[in-house]
Design goal:
The protein is an alpha+beta fold. The strands form 8 sheets. The chain has a 5-stranded mixed sheet, sandwiched between helices. A 4-stranded antiparallel sheet has the order 3-4-5-6, with no helix packed on it. A hairpin with a 2-residue loop joins strand 4 and strand 5 (102-107). It is globular and about 85 Å long. The protein starts with 22 loop residues before the first helix and ends with a helix. The relative contact order is 0.06.
Length: 738
Amino acid sequence: MFSPRTPVGRGRPSPFTHSQSRSVKISSTTPRRNLRSQSNLAGQSLHTSQFLEETSQHRIEAFGAPLPVLITEALNLSDRSTTEITACIDPSGWAWLVGGRKLFVWRYKSSGNSRTVQCKELMLPPSDLAHSAERVCLIPSENDGQPAACVAVSPEGIVRYWPNIAFESSTAEISAELRGEECAKVINFQPHGCLLATTTSSLLLLEPVAGQVSIQCKPLKASQGLFSGLSKRMSSFIFGASPLQTNGSPLQTILAAPEDEYDDDDDDEEMKEDLEDGSTEEENSDEETFKSKHTQTLKDIEMFLSELPQKSISEVLHTTSVLESPEKRGQITTDESLNGQNCAPDVLVQACQDKVQYVDFIIEHIKRSCPGFDKYAYQVAACIICQAIHTHVSISDMLQSIRAWPSHLPELPSTRLLETEITLAAGQTLTVCGHKLNQFNMDTLKPDREISPKVLHAYLELLAQKHSSKMFVIPFDVILEWRDGRFSQNIFRKVHFKTFEFLVLPIHCGAEFSEMERKSGDIVSPCWMALVADVRNRTVGMMNPRSEDKYIIAANGYMLQWRRYMQIRSVHTGEMLSSWTTKQIECSKLEKDLNSGTLLLMNVEALVNDVPPVVMTEAHVTNYLLYIAVALRDMDRETTVLCVGGPECQQLAARDADWLQCENCRTWWHQACARHSDRTQPFYCSPCQQRIAIVGGKRVLMECDDAEDEDEEELQTDNDQKETNKQGDEDHKVFQSE
């Protein structure tokens, strides 16, 4: 019904772009015969059969009034490559369509008073993100045949209210103050107004003021009763998060139950019983929700264990049986513990402290399946299975989390000492992927020190170079530009994001705030987290090592800013990557604030190695710091060859070679390796399939379409310069001989 059709002509503007022309001008170009047929169809009964297809068991026929001319023209002239079109149908008889900032509202069911199809065009609130019909709510009039009221919300939370859609200029506009969250859906919640749900399951009540062009917004907080002030018979909803977790959990859906499904007398009796028991309705509701969720989780675990082969359980127990319990290794020295020996299982057990009931349930099951192991082996095995269920990770991957050194990383250079690797000579600096690291930066690789941003970015760039075309690293100071509203300041025009699998933005959460802002937001110490965008699947998520609500809210705000940034970048670069879906990325949680930077690097390295980040824990931090220090020293540009051109280039010393860097994937090349043997060809980066040219002594990433002409100009310029230099040398020799 809403599928686009072939455009009727060229050169006509899209109806979803802001224009001064009205629908009268569009309808005047429609053939008269079509208008007559439209009016005839509109005058027919809606129950007249218009068969489209019929079989012995099914019949397909057109339903409702025909589409208004304005909608038909809008669909015909829309450019689906740049404009997202969404539509909704309401049981009350109203339908609406959203494209760009334009909202079209009409009745698909004729009322008792009139059968004509009228369509109203309204202007949605401004937004840098794409509007959706899910964020629009029609409030039908109590009198049949009268225009409806309408509430529309932008993704950022700007609310626009029309008490009567017949008067499009009579509007009220407020801000819902979503605090970085994104509006996901708005539904009708009469007689109280509308309910706004965010992508992270927060709820707000939008309440129109009767008899006025005004609307109010009231947040519904779990700590004060999710539906405080509303009658119980109107507070039954089905949505993604429980009332105990209104922030952070992805929204599934939200539905309002009809009033007549509840009995007021039963509600009063239940409330009296609650008061007699000395408990409030809210406490009982929360307790019932917790019990229901706990029971369902136990059922899910039981089903998982029943389908798990006994061979897998036996393999896990044989792996954990060789581990020594904390009581047996009480004589182990502190140095051995710091080196990661035997402490990884303890970190896993500590991470499952809030899941003790589920761990005990798993222990009882695996004891019956595989008896004969000690208590500590059962405890660690149960924690592995519990974490695998909770994070949706395979058991074989979770087994890596109890190893002193995970298998997806190269062998740990245990013969090299951390103190030696981080100590530089007087005045010495390391140059790693364009980042200068001095002694102060290297000292931050010591245990119980917060890793410096320079070291963190240098190692991320090193990973990006090692895994060419796997990821692109966006500098963390981009967040400061976003905070000031400068989303178009650093959009990487020369970088093709589609050539990468992941886009990684390290974020020092809270560092961009002032001290007063951190106190008001209760973020005492900044924490490193990473925004990861999966380019292939168009998903974005946060690797957040903190589970507190304040950090979850901040992470949601960063993802909202990311969507706005990518929308603006798509306009400037033409690389259409404006639409993103939120995805939850599981990673290990943090116990020490100082380890957040190191944990971020471990998570990103696991990601680019196609390993779940949750396998890396704080137990691996000390060994991983040595691993980083060795990698930075080995990749120092003054002592090591960075070129990825092949084995033959390893004979070139870095200080004696001319270097190039691809501005797309930032891979370093020798000029000889990038040119290969043919001097007539341009520089070429094989990992990301982009060409590199040298113009005026600068590296320039060239578009493939115009590359040939620019290559010829560059080559001609080089030849002219060589001829000039050759002639100058000959003149100098002649002068000396004379």
